[in-house]
Amino acid sequence: MTERIEFLSNKEVQNEDGVMVPGTDTPIFSCWAEVLNTPIREFKDATTKVGNRKESPNFAIKFEPQRLIDSTWKVRWRGSVYEITGIDEDFDKRDLTKLECKAVNAK
């Protein structure tokens, strides 16, 4: 594991008028991760035929049953924020959890 990632949660907060509004991204915890290699055919944009791994990175982290990852969380890696689009938790071997992510502002 060579990369540090941070998990963020965005909970709604109540404003002064009593209306629930989106809050700010709040750090939950950070951990070490490995950026997984993705075959080029899996991350190419169908319209441009060009891919950028930084727009849709996949991470592997140590499996921790006491900290199950919530799919509504976001991941901060190298200063960019990514939404979680897929989670593969290895309940069988209890070895790694794999995260599929996409840049928040990517199209």
Automatic annotation (TrEMBL):
Query: From what superkingdom does this record's organism come?
Result: Bacteria
Q: Which InterPro entries match?
A: Phage_SPP1_head-tail_adaptor (IPR008767), SSP1_head-tail_sf (IPR038666)
User: Which protein are we looking at?
Assistant: Phage head-tail adaptor
Q: Which organism is it from?
A: Companilactobacillus mindensis DSM 14500
